[in-house]
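Run folding on both entries below.
>entry_1
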Amino acid sequence: MDIRHNRQTGQGAFLAMENGHNVGELTYVYVKEKTIRIDHTLVHPSQRGKGLAHRLVEAAVAYARAEGLSIVPVCSFAVAEFKRHPEYTDVLDPSDDTTDDATNASCPLRQWE
């Protein structure tokens, strides 16, 4: 399993690739110059339960650390990961309170296509 990072102006994605096929993704957008918002995670049904979504969040955290960014987790999975992993606190945006607000902790509902 290979995690690739696709960056575009103002946004990006971490893609989990297996045998040349995308089997998972985490998307983010820049909300400030040094702040990204994780807005979506999705894993192919055949890959669920294998820790893939966690690996995608880990990749986003590593990217934030390397680039000196902070993260606002909005996707419900990312919010839960930040609660489960206090070691991510160093990249959690200090002005963000979405981790305590369940009404903001959701991703747009999407199905694997």
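>entry_2
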Amino acid sequence: MNDIIPVIANPISPELAQRRRAPEDLQAVAEQFEAIFIQTLLKQARQSKLADDILGSSAGDKYTEMLEKERAKSMAQNMNLGIAEALVKQFGSGVVSSPKND
């Protein structure tokens, strides 16, 4: 009975646990970076407008910024620009992948 407990409870160090979680974290951060990149593109495109709109206000500008942020997140999840994959490929070489059977 006592021989089974160490196998079931297989304790790991915090450093190893963090490195095992690193691939998922790297992918999430890469996707967030891609969303920020898209948001910056949308913001720059909006700022390059030729004339001010009639109903322009600070509240409308704030709403537009929030809309762009959510639109950028959605675009990053649904479109494949390749930025996230390039980041994961570049920075993923030093990351330990988690084993399938813990």
